[in-house]
Amino acid sequence: MSQSNDLFQAAQKIIPGGVNSPVRAFKGVGGTPIFFKKGEGAYITDEDDKRYVDYVGSWGPMILGHAHPRVIQSVEEQLKAGLGFGAPTAIETTMAEKVCETIPSIEMVRMVSSGTEATMSAIRLARGYTNRDKIVKFEGCYHGHADSLLVKAGSGALTLGVPNSPGVPASVAEHTITLTYNDIESVKQAFAEIGDQVAAIIVEPVAGNMNCIPPVAGFLEGLRAVCDQYGSVLIFDEVMTGFRTALAGAQSVYNITPDLTTLGKVIGGGMPVGAFGGKREIMEYIAPTGPVYQAGTLSGNPLAMRAGLTMLEEISKPGFFEGLAEHTRQLTDGLLERAKAANIPFAVSRVGGMFGLFFTEEENVTTFQQVTECNIERFQAFYHGMLEQGIYLAPSAYEAGFVSAAHGHKEIQATLDAAEKVFATL
Ligand SMILES: N[C@H](C=O)CCC(=O)O
């Protein structure tokens, strides 16, 4: 028996499923979850002292690698000044300035404590601003677990087979119209029928919660045009892609300006932080300047702001994203080459520091349907083979992988060597 197993047995007695977020439970790959005790750079160490090259990065935030010395130091300094006051602090304004200066579509920003809070609040704001109830999302996209958004959702909900969760009232879900990602015609058609009732379109500009699906040419442009035509708010959920696909997020990669943007993960430097922001005119609808209520005891927590701001400073250094994208390219190209050599039908995707792996005959995966048609048994076998070789990937076929600045030639080569061995066994 391993320490992880013992810990999992104990955890299951007192925590539902033994985990505090369902996707951690390994239901998507079979077996039992690994319990970790330490992270350093590109590596994490489990409770049995086995070290892994980590491509989960705490599900995205760890873009500098684990325990980055500057992030740790800034948190230590803040610790001595107190953990939080529930009152304004100077660092919140510094953080807001940094976000607005980095992502030009954001003229005003409000900090919250998670990505779910960010998307939930952005939806409420869009509804309040437009005085409309309906929202449009896309099947397989995941925007956190607020009621309105847990409809045909991706990520853990899809992994566990509950894309529509019990507990979400039908009277709430009926206001969420779910369309097909990367299919602009279905959007135009829906808007022709009910466009004047739609408060917002919310979209992951790169769908990272159904693996990693970039937008096809014209899709995001089409969403922008439809929102302009019908007076709906365009919300880019950049919780995953913000500060990850590029410094200014996917909106800068694809050159589309949303009305609102939601952020999370990297912005907290590993601490629980989210944010939503955008056009001043819309953001001023939020209390206390406007009537749409939104609040949080821990919002803008100084410890979290300090960690996040330090991380944003580090990733703003010249050349950071070029290096990250190059390492991600080496990884995905290398995997593709080795799969080909082993005659395994396989495809990859990547944008900046995020990537997707697909066991499929298709060369390009662009739709939710293609994602769900991938060979899941083969993914599971690959997953466990890689785990054995000391490579930690997300335990779900529907989650993107993340490369950090700490992943260098050595880690990528180790990953490719491991993959070569595992592909040969499939
Ligand atoms: N894809 C999810 C977040 O973006 C995975 C994290 C979770 O559900 O715990």
Automatic annotation (TrEMBL):
<comment type="subunit">
    <text>Homodimer.</text>
</comment>
<dbReference type="InterPro" id="IPR015421">
    <property type="entry name" value="PyrdxlP-dep_Trfase_major"/>
</dbReference>
<dbReference type="InterPro" id="IPR049704">
    <property type="entry name" value="Aminotrans_3_PPA_site"/>
</dbReference>
<dbReference type="InterPro" id="IPR015422">
    <property type="entry name" value="PyrdxlP-dep_Trfase_small"/>
</dbReference>
<dbReference type="GO" id="GO:0006782">
    <property type="term" value="P:protoporphyrinogen IX biosynthetic process"/>
</dbReference>
<dbReference type="InterPro" id="IPR005814">
    <property type="entry name" value="Aminotrans_3"/>
</dbReference>
<dbReference type="GO" id="GO:0005737">
    <property type="term" value="C:cytoplasm"/>
</dbReference>
<dbReference type="InterPro" id="IPR015424">
    <property type="entry name" value="PyrdxlP-dep_Trfase"/>
</dbReference>
<keyword id="KW-0963">Cytoplasm</keyword>
<dbReference type="GO" id="GO:0030170">
    <property type="term" value="F:pyridoxal phosphate binding"/>
</dbReference>
<comment type="pathway">
    <text>Porphyrin-containing compound metabolism; protoporphyrin-IX biosynthesis; 5-aminolevulinate from L-glutamyl-tRNA(Glu): step 2/2.</text>
</comment>
<dbReference type="Pfam" id="PF00202">
    <property type="entry name" value="Aminotran_3"/>
</dbReference>
<dbReference type="GO" id="GO:0042286">
    <property type="term" value="F:glutamate-1-semialdehyde 2,1-aminomutase activity"/>
</dbReference>
<keyword id="KW-0413">Isomerase</keyword>
<dbReference type="InterPro" id="IPR004639">
    <property type="entry name" value="4pyrrol_synth_GluAld_NH2Trfase"/>
</dbReference>
<keyword id="KW-0663">Pyridoxal phosphate</keyword>
<feature type="modified residue" description="N6-(pyridoxal phosphate)lysine">
    <location>
        <position position="265"/>
    </location>
</feature>
<dbReference type="GO" id="GO:0008483">
    <property type="term" value="F:transaminase activity"/>
</dbReference>
<protein>
    <recommendedName>
        <fullName>Glutamate-1-semialdehyde 2,1-aminomutase</fullName>
        <ecNumber>5.4.3.8</ecNumber>
    </recommendedName>
</protein>
<comment type="similarity">
    <text>Belongs to the class-III pyridoxal-phosphate-dependent aminotransferase family. HemL subfamily.</text>
</comment>
<keyword id="KW-0627">Porphyrin biosynthesis</keyword>
